[in-house]
Structures are given as structure tokens and as C-alpha cells.
Design a protein that fits this description.
Chemotaxis protein chec; Surface presentation of antigens (SPOA); 12 helices
């Protein structure tokens, strides 16, 4: 750790600078390094994640999927998996798929009521590694993946491993809308996959998957046209009104329905003085000033809510509601 100058040393240094004994000029090497810098315009800086602003808060949905699917993989393969989002970018669909010409598995997802669905792309190393784990291999896997496409049998095994992807995607989107995601097909050739036009814009979430020494990448590919109808819902995802409506308001509405209330069928009322009540004895007749043909008042917590007529049902006294106040 560098030592801190004392007060007297700082004074001596300042005096030396004023007297010219200590030069403030850069030496040749420092000057060359300084001149090699590139000027920037602070008013024209562009944030690298500018594409995300078109679909705001979508990173929250991806992060929620990461946590949920990591748990699903851990339970299914009996290994501790972690999944983190490392990027969220936009690409042209054809160019992105061309860059992923060598892939492990490509799952085509149907996501009704969303129109265009999505893709889940798994790199070759992760695909073969998960298949080996499923078949009982140990976690120490350092060998490179075979330089070939997955076979039909391997695709079937990988599809079983990816069974929870649909469920976890539905869970991640549940705070926006109810999805019913299904995996239509699992392909091993990027050239055979087409869910939108070649020049269509897609939003790609890059997920880093780790399990011990094993690591690989999963890509979630969403056409912009798939997510565009959710833009307003995503924008309101963190707003107070949405959070309240989706949590406390629902809880309060459910709990209020279970609060007990007193219901009284009232035929009539009478007002008496305290002395009249004290003078009452068995056999007294109290005039309620009530028309026996008129409907009863049904009170809910002392408030008139319904009208009814008296009767019997299954051998017990009952009332039949005839109106609402």
C-alpha cells in the first residue's frame, strides 16, 4: 500500500512545483500514449443496450426464466446448474442463424396467443454434455464435442431434457399474460429452421449455463413481431399500479370474500322506552306495525341489502330472495 504524504511533505512538493523544480509536463512515452487516445462526444454517446428500449423490461422476463430453468435442470439432471443472462441484443434473423451454422439443438416453440413463437438454440458442447449426463456420465467432461450433428436418438434425449423449457417460459411470462408454450420440433440444422422472414428483426437473449467445470450457451430467439404486442405490458411491469394490481389488490380481494358477515331477515321494528321494556311480562303482545303480506327486509351487517318472503324448506324456516335494495 502506498504511503500517505505528511503535511510537511505536501508543502515541500507544492513549493517545488511553484519554483519549477518539479516538472508537470508529460515525458515522451506518456505524451505518445496521450496522443493515441480517441476523442469522444459526450452528447452523441449511444448506449450499447439501446435496442432493449424498444421492448422495455424484457430483460426481467429473461432473468426470471434463467432462475426458473436453472432449478428445473438441477432437479432433472441431479447436478447443480446456474444460468445467467450475458447479453440481450437484436439481430437480423438470417445473419444470426448463419453465425450459428454449427448448433447442438434448435427447439421451435409455439407460444399462443403470441403469433410467431420463438427458438431456443443450444450450442454443441452443452447439447452433447447434457445428453451424456442424462445417460449417466460423470461431471468431469473436458473433451470437445463431436464435430457432427445430433442424431435422431440424441435429439429425442435432448428434447426430454428441454421438456421444462416451455413450462418455465410460461412461468416467466405469467405476470404479463397466460401462455401455452409447446415445443413443435427439435432440429439439428439451422438451415431447416425458419419462423420469420430472413431479414426480420429478432431479439436474442444469450444465457451462460454452468455446471461445475461444464459451461455452454443457450440462445432464446424472439422475433420482434412476437414481443411487440407486449410492449405496453412490459413498460408497465414495474409501475406501482401494475405491481399493486397484480399482488396486494388480488390478495385483499380474495381475503375480503372470506370475512364473516351477519345476515338478518327482519319483519319489522318497534321503538320502546326503557321503562316499557322493564314492564314487559310473559303474554304481552307487541304491535310491530308490519304488513304480513309485505316482503321481509334482509340486512347484511345492519344494512338493508335484499328483500324476501318467508317460508319453509326441508322442514326448516327459510326465506326466498325476491329483490335487491
Amino acid at each position: 500500500m502506498d504511503s500517505i504524504l505528511k503535511k510537511s511533505e505536501i508543502t515541500e512538493l507544492l513549493n517545488a512545483i511553484r519554483e519549477g523544480k518539479v516538472s508537470l509536463d508529460l515525458d515522451d512515452n506518456d505524451q505518445d500514449a496521450f496522443l493515441a487516445c480517441s476523442p469522444i462526444n459526450l452528447f452523441q454517446l449511444v448506449r450499447p443496450d439501446r435496442e432493449q428500449f424498444r421492448i422495455p423490461n424484457f430483460d426481467l422476463i429473461i432473468d426470471l426464466f434463467c432462475r426458473s430453468y436453472a432449478t428445473s435442470l438441477t432437479n432433472q439432471l441431479q447436478r447443480t446448474f446456474s444460468i445467467t443472462r450475458t447479453a440481450l441484443d437484436t439481430h437480423e434473423f438470417q445473419k444470426f442463424m448463419a453465425d450459428k451454422h454449427q448448433t447442438g439443438g434448435i427447439g421451435i416453440l409455439d407460444m399462443p396467443p403470441l403469433k410467431y413463437g420463438a427458438l431456443i438454440v443450444i450450442d454443441p458442447k452443452l447439447s452433447f454434455s447434457m445428453i451424456e449426463i442424462m445417460l449417466g456420465a460423470t461431471s468431469e467432461m473436458e473433451s470437445s464435442p463431436p464435430e457432427r450433428n445430433l442424431t435422431t436418438i440424441e435429439l429425442s434425449i435432448l428434447k426430454t431434457i428441454l421438456a421444462d423449457v416451455c413450462k418455465d417460459l410460461d412461468k416467466a411470462f405469467s405476470q404479463l399474460l397466460e401462455l401455452n408454450t409447446t415445443m413443435v420440433k427439435l432440429e439439428n440444422n439451422a438451415r431447416l429452421v425458419s419462423i420469420v422472414e430472413p431479414d426480420a428483426e429478432v431479439i436474442v437473449g444469450t444465457l451462460l449455463v454452468k455446471m461445475g467445470e461444464l459451461s455452454g450457451e443457450i440462445y432464446l430467439v424472439f422475433p420482434y413481431a412476437t414481443l411487440e404486442p407486449l410492449r405496453d405490458l412490459l413498460r408497465e411491469l414495474l409501475s406501482i399500479s401494475t405491481v399493486t394490481r397484480g399482488t396486494w389488490q388480488d390478495v385483499l380481494e380474495e381475503e375480503i370474500q372470506d370475512i364473516p358477515s351477519d345476515v338478518t331477515a327482519q319483519s319489522g321494528t318497534i321503538t320502546l322506552s326503557v321503562q316499557q321494556v322493564l314492564d314487559m311480562k310473559i303474554g304481552d303482545i307487541l304491535d310491530l306495525n308490519y304488513d304480513p303480506g309485505a316482503p321481509l327486509k334482509v340486512l347484511v351487517d345492519d344494512k338493508v341489502k335484499f328483500f324476501a318472503i318467508p317460508g319453509t324448506h326441508n322442514g326448516k324456516k327459510a326465506i326466498s330472495l325476491t329483490g335487491v335494495n
